[in-house]
Amino acid sequence: IEVDVSKPTIDLPEHLYGLFFEDINWAADGGLYAELVQNRSFEYFPVAENDPLGKKMVPLFAWEKIGGNPVELSVEETDPLNWNNKHYAKLKSAATAKVGVVNAGFDGIPLDQGASYRVSVFVRTRGWSGNGAITATLLDADGSECGTASLGEATGEWSKLEEEIVSSKTTDQAKLAISTEGSGVIDLDMISLFPKDTYKGRVNGLRKDLVEALADLHPKFLRFPGGCIAHGCGLDNAYRWKDTVGPVEERRPNWNRWGYHQTYGLGFFEYFQLCEDLGMTPLPVVPIGVSCGFTDPYEVVDIENLGEWIDDALDLIEFANGPADSEWGHVRAEMGHPEPFQLEFVCLGNEEHDTPEMRERFPRFVEAMRDRYPDIKIIGTSGLDPEIPIYDLMTREKVHSSDEHYYKDPSWFIAHQDRFDDFDRSKPKIFVGEYASRDKKQINAVAEAAYLTGIERNADLVDMTCYAPLFGRLGHCQWNPDLIYFNHREVVKTPSYHVQRMFASNKGDVYLANTVEVVDPQPQPTVSGTIGLGTWGTAAEFDEIRVNGRRVDPAGWQTARGRFAETAGVFAQTDTEARPAMATGTESYAGEEVTITLKARKVSGAEGFIIAFGGNDGSSWWF
Ligand code: AHR
Question: Which reaction does it catalyse (predicted)?
Fold first, then answer.
């Protein structure tokens, strides 16, 4: 490697490597957010394409009744705990009986012997005969008790009862029961169970092992809360940050477009706090009044009503940075953080489609933000696939950077390492806010690493990058691959994770121009085997394929999968599928040094070529 220290160098930006967090694949509820009770507030509302549950509320999802026939369990909304959280469980018994509910957790509740858990419930009685004493019990899969706590007595008014409970067993399949004895009506809401051992021991906290896996990546920023969930599948599904702050029982939950339910227990305060804990610059994404263009319904806010959405974006800055006596700074202070969170960036929109509605609305957010908060840096959006021409709007609006996303196969990443070499430096910077190499051959991490070398070479232009998605809970992944897989106890760090960690934890201060000459240090052993040619794409044609100068006779090649054939002297790919890699004909060469020459006639739609060698000794190389 030759490094020319006299050449101008590029300062590698402080925030080059960070994280993108979205509640997909159970990343938040059932994941990072340490709540162990699923559907704690009886508001469960899953929506997803092909969702067997359909587009309707399932308020008793994950719950069962305790008590036989005399006990009725229903969900009501008359005189609720509050109007953001309007459903609650009503238990009614005409005769004295043990009544209650049992929650199955997220695939069971994991418990550790000797560990403490915080249990809480909002409860109210109506015409109750009995003392209203509420008991919390941890039950193992076979129904045996592994912990119990008396929570106190319910009264005729909603009140919160809470206690600590210690588990006598280690299990992954526990359930939580909340029960009492008597007759009449008893109402329950916000039934919650957290391990005491959350990250930093926080109440309403995060799973320690998962936060530690993030900390090990040395991330310098966090983009949150999405992704598609930020702009939503239709406007009522957009992520409105104000619904996610304040006391957890007063947050207004929402359905998750990935097919489950968002409690918003992990909300904007908790995201900012996580940023502070791990030294990450917060990059909150706010919707710009345009819903996700990929999903039905695609909706936009009427221009005359856009003010409320713009105010949300401005108020977010006050929530993060405003003094504790400002309207939204006060909410932050009440949540325990009077000091500002030092917000510097706001991301406007996620992966918006290039529509006239988007083009009309985006500049209004920019103008209002510049007017009120001129120091805030605006990150715009270029959409999915860098070909989407929305960068011109970002250029016109002079945003700090434009967020582009790509999920491609490894050949794309390898072939596009030079993507930024010729970008116009007078235009906005680039934020690679979501990317992942997707392929079944497990060379994703290598392709991502190769791509990152191209980014470091262009780090005067590309100032931030983050992989996506971050988390996938085993058995609940709507999207693969993910950077970190987990279940109740295990955290699996993928090869892509290690690439991220390697680059982030070894980031230099400057990039030095360099040339790399690959010298074969050892004489290569002679191996006999077969060579093959493959292409990705739909329209590759070659006039000639020569091996060691000899024109290949296609008759001697096996046309693997019948997708590569010669007609009238032209070797053509006959595969009509756009994606999968295509095997091709092969020839055997014994003990020869092999040179392959391709004369391409047409390569439109082809994303790359592969030349493969399979040695008879079991070795194989791909170029
Ligand atoms: O990362 C998964 C999804 O991919 C994100 O929600 C979206 O922004 C992108 O299309």
Answer: Hydrolysis of terminal non-reducing alpha-L-arabinofuranoside residues in alpha-L-arabinosides
Q: Is the CB of 226 under 6 A from ligand 1?
A: yes
pTM value > 0.90: no
Please give the distance, rounded to the nearest whole angstrom, from the Cα atom of residue 228 to the centre of ligand 1.
5
| 371 shares its domain with 487 | yes
> 169 C-alpha to center of ligand 1: Å?
39
Among 404, 479, 483, 496, the mutation site with the greatest number of ligand 1 atoms within 8 A of its Cβ is 479
Whose Cα sits closest to atom 4 in ligand 1?
Answer: 227
Distance CA 487, CA 484 (A): 10
Instruction: Indicate if 575 and 493 belong to the same structural domain.
Output: no
Buried/exposed code over 351-390 (b: 16+ C-beta within 10 A; e: otherwise): bbbeeebbeebbebbbebbeeebeebbbbbbbbbebebeb
Q: Are residues 485 and 550 in the same domain?
A: no
Do both 190 and 215 map to the same domain? no
For ligand 1, the distance from its centroid to the CA atom of residue 433, given in whole angstroms, is 10
Run of H or E residues at 116: strand 116-129
Helix (H, G, I), strand (E, B) or coil at 348: strand
Look-up: residue for tokens 């560990």? 115
Dump pLDDT digits (tens) for 94-142. Answer: 999 999 999 999 999 999 999 999 999 999 999 999 888 999 999 999 9
**Catalytic sites, residue numbers:** 351
Is 227 touching ligand 1 by the criterion CB < 6 Å? yes
Ligand 1 near 22 CB (within 6 A): yes
What would the pLDDT profile of 50-74 be if each residue is shown by its tens digit? 554 556 788 999 999 998 888 999 9
Instruction: Give the residue whose CA is nearest to atom 3 of ligand 1.
Output: 227
CATH of the domain at 222: 3.20.20.80
Q: Strand 514-515 vs strand 2-3: parallel, antiparallel, or unpaired?
A: antiparallel
218 and 84 assigned to the same domain: no
Question: Does a structural domain hold residue 324?
Answer: no
Q: Whose CA is nearest to atom 9 of ligand 1?
A: 227
